[in-house]
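Task: encode each sequence below as structure tokens.

Item 1
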Amino acid sequence: MDGFLAAERALRTAAPDALLDAVRAVLAERYGAEDAELYMADYGLTVLQPVSVLPHALGAVPLNNSPAGRAFGAQEPYREDIGNGRDRLHLPVSVRGDRLGVLSVTFPEGGAARRWETELAEIAGVLGREVVVAERDTDLYLQARRKDRLTLAAEMQWQLLPGRSCSRPEYELGAQLEPAYAIFGDNFDWSATADRLMLYVTNGMGEGIEAALLTNLAINALRNARRAGISIADQAALADQAVYAHYRGRCHLSVLMCDFDLTTGRASVVDAGSPQLLRLRDGVVERVDFEAQLPLGMFEETDYVTQDFQVEPGDRLVFVSDGVHAVASPRGEAYGNAALARAIQSTRLLPAAEVPRAILRELTGHRGRPAPDDDALIVCLDWRGRHVAP
């Protein structure tokens, strides 16, 4: 435990760009580690890229079929025998369920990785929290996340997102956007309190910078209203006014807004456009339809009303943008709800954080080419509910 406290102190006092150096020094001195490397998951969730190698892509390892990728996917430490009696321990680096990357620690003798596994896993968790804080003051970790250059629109969109996954006792969330390095206007946002989870899935209009600017305006208007403590119907109305005041109806934005009660599972929903919701319950996938209302910003002073929706423990909710359910195959066939239902069934054993990436891989096969023409957004919510003592 003295080693853990030393690592925590070193990370807390290190310069924002020197977190890896700080943890390396403690791992060498206190645990006899030979070396350590921090890998960050790239925006497309295809590779893990080292923080200490510039350009970072030079030392990238694949997320699939690599020891570090196994630790990242399973969110559990993974020990690797690298020969000559040496071990490498791969540790997931995550913060409240948001999976950032992997810390790989090399030991000169076998058995050391097993001996220190639990304690080093806790150090990796502290490192993750410090990386999130450090990103306010350095670009190092954000640079390590990109294997290609982001478009300006994509840069704006990634900065707007809350994270790509989140975990609490009551639920797990996972989300992903494609094309990761050239997204336009699709977006997701969430925020939780002690008793509620608010989740927004946005289908933006247009392309490039204009789409990113529209989404930024709408999301910040929704956040401003949410942080004022008002209902989601009024949040939608105020965001609608903000978008209309700027664009005068020339541009608008679709959003599906959900406000979940963590104790009862009852949700209030505002459906203002095209994002769709499918539910997996007791092995059956079905689309959940709401009464569609006008997209944000289409007309002046639109009133929005909420609808009730009940979610049960064990439910899996999958939210998709039109860049998923409407994408066409080379023969012009839309992906549609039937294909989506099959994809949701085939990924039912995966954790929520893995589901969006797995479904997007299937979508690529349907599309017949790697690059989509439109944003594709998937959000997966696994609902466990809150146990209330009798």
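Item 2
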Amino acid sequence: MSAPHEPTAWALRAGAGDAFFTAEMRRGLVGLGWRRIGDLGEVSGEKEIRAVVDRVYPDQSPRTRKATAVQLRAFRDLVRPGDVIALHRE
């Protein structure tokens, strides 16, 4: 039996004009806005996530693509059910 999960607090932005404040968030669910990325369930780490981001968003700067990969990996690997999400809305 595993130890109980100690909730962690995370901060997300809702995007310009609250673009990502959806009905799902009102129901207590949260997701990220990189829909073109697809399912990362079979991707094994930050390098591999970065390769997907580089392929899908070649027009973004290397700095932006790196930040996107870091955020996606953190969300996928670190955020757990029961964590608290603070959503910054404009």
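Check on item 2: The CA atoms of residues 42 and 48 lie 10 Å apart. The chain has one domain: 9-88.
End of task.
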